[in-house]
Amino acid sequence: MAGFRYGPYHEGPDPLAPPYDVRAALDAMGDSMLEGTSPADALRDLLRRGLPDEQRRRGLDDLLRQVRARRQELRGRGRLDGTLEEARSLLDRAIGQERAELFPDPSDEARLREAELDAIPADTAQAVRRLASYDWRSPDARRTFEELKDLLRRDVLDAQFRGMKQALSDPDPAAMQRVKDMMAALNDMLEKDARGEHTQEDFDNFMREYGDFFPDDPQNLEQLVDSLARRAAATERLLASLTPEQRAELAALMAQTLEDAGLAMEMERLSSSLRQRRPDLDWSGSERMTGDDPMSMGDATTALQELADLAELEGALRQDYPGARMDDIDEEAVRRALGRQAVDDLAELRRIEAELERQGYLKRRGGALDLTPKAVRRLGETALRRVFAQLDTARRGDHDQSDAGQAGELTGASRPWQHGDEQPIDVVRTVSNALRRGEYRPGRSGGTAVRLTVDDFEVLETERRTAAAVCLLVDLSYSMALRGTWGSAKQTALALHTLVSSKYPQDAIQVIGFSNYARVLPPTELAGLDWDMVQGTNLHHALLIAGRHLEKHPEHEPIVLIITDGEPTAHLLRDGRSSFDWPPSRETLELTLAEVDKMTRRRATLNIFMLADDERLVSFVQEVARRNGGRVFAPTPDRLGEYVVRDYLRVRRGRGG
Q1: Which end of the chain has fewer CB atoms within 10 angstroms, the N or the C?
Q2: Are 266 and 51 in contact (CB under 8 A)?
Q3: d(CA 104, CA 82)
Q4: pLDDT (tens digit per residue) in 386-445
């Protein structure tokens, strides 16, 4: 008999898990977009704030604060001249021990040695070079000077290769020879790669032999080069961060140490290769450290390398450059800097971005982020709910009716059903027709069943609802953004479009935006729409487009609603170009009012919603109302949607809608 064992699933995402719910994330984005923010900016704002309704999850701003706190902590860790200070201390001790040994000796040789010590330069590097051939009489002084040379050798190499200090803790000369062999093999591998001859097998063989020198455990040559180049660049920045005197002294000590160790040539080869491969790194910058404790050269280089990594991570977390994506953030860098919890937070934020695209709410086109019709529908519903929440309870109207957008009131008559009819079925007449045909059959429980055919069905006649051709003209000019009314206008347009599409599908709505020119705004463009940073309020062009929409629907009742914060300042020339004048030219006003008169002849009432009280605007809309008979409203921006939707519903009810 077959047996089965069960355990956790480790082959990727749980295939039985429900789809990730990003609707709350989309709604949070909608809050920004309905205020006038683009989809890309709204997504970035959401990722900065973090997941909605997820208190334990942090956004990019929280991670940024952690990164900046970590950078501040590193800067306060200590001073960069620790190796130089310790080298000076050991040198002074060795010289002092030698003088103590020479002082009791009355011989001329002792005096000559003291004179030689007196002539030692103050510069630590020059002193070490001079004393390298000195025959120490004091055993303690000799041991101290050897300790100094070991310190320099370990710290200088540790600055270039992280973890080298541990590898060189063994004083056996064979350990130093192994370092030389490693560097020669490394340089040979880099040169072989430059010729296009390197293979992964070469790298694997190298790591088997010298992997203990590289605690980062790189998996290929590129990872190794990246680690070494970042370390080498940090060493250069360490020198640049010191005073000129300290820089010269430490650089000379490094050169002397490498020369004494027989590594000067190999180190020069390596530095040249790393610079050529990673010229993008900061090789000349500097950091200001504020701590009091001296750090060794290796520790200082590690701190500077981490500071550089944090600076790079901070730039990626800001996501404020063109084409920024969550994939740009290095997960490993986040783990090193902030720990495992931050990696989990980042994964959740990435999941939001990915799921919004995968579930069909967002799409990328030419590097830009766009909303899909699915997302626009949801945001439109959100905008409409907000508008309805503002309507007075006593005047909510058709939006609460379950049959809104259906047929009108029953007339009491019925007629045969036709394909496409949406009227209610007349059950009594339908069954009566079947009975008159006399087609029966025995029922399952012993009774008689009546067989219905298509010809038996009848529907109840209703009053015909009047369809409307709706034009919403929305000002897109720069002044709308300056006055802070653009977000309200966009939310209103989206809410009205959703209302008409869902509750009154027999109506034909067209949203027209206008600035220096006018254009039809499709539903998918509404939510992500931005204002135009141009001069001109071309209501003349907008009315021309609206007139064409009304003429395409001659049987529909015309409804024209205009949202604007300024008088017309532009009109369309015969050649199709826009002409701008401020104050408005006489020609602009005449052409615009001529289109108003055409609307009046079409029986289209123009209702205008003013978002400013400028004298010229008030004068203009009063003239439009006089010529057309339309109404003028002056709502506050936060009540614009309520006014527009309520006016649309009023007009529909008044015209049999």
Answers
A1: N
A2: no
A3: 35
A4: 666 666 543 444 333 333 334 445 556 677 876 655 567 887 788 888 777 766 666 565
Answer yes or no: are the C-beta atoms of 141 and 152 closer than 8 Å. no
Rounded-to-integer distance, Cα 424 and Cα 458, Å? 9
DSSP-assigned beta bridge partners for residue 473: 512, 562
CA atoms within 13 A on the CB side of 76: 6
Of 273, 324, 287, nearest in space to 160 by CA: 273
End-to-end CA, the chain = 72
Residue 105 and residue 137: Cα distance in Å, rounded? 11
Those residues with Cβ within 8 angstroms of residue 70's Cβ, 6 or more apart along the chain or in another chain: 310, 337, 338
Nearest residue to 543 (alpha-carbon basis) of 598, 497, 498, 616: 598
Write out the two tokens for 9: 């699933």
* Rg of the chain in Å (alpha carbons): 41
Query: Is 291:76 a contact under the CB 8 Å cutoff?
Result: yes
Phi then psi for 282, rounded to 5 degrees? -85, 105
Find out whether 214 and 221 touch, Cβ atoms under 8 Å: no
3-state secondary structure of 167: helix
3-state SS string for 293-327: CECCHHHHHHHHHHHHHHHHHHHHHHCCCCCCCHH
HSE-CB of 484 using CA atoms within 13 angstroms: 3
Residue-wise DSSP of 316-369: HHH--STT--GGGS-HHHHHHHH-HHHHHHHHHHHHHHHHHHHTTSEEEETTEE
pLDDT tens digit sequence for 504-527: 778 888 888 888 888 888 877 766
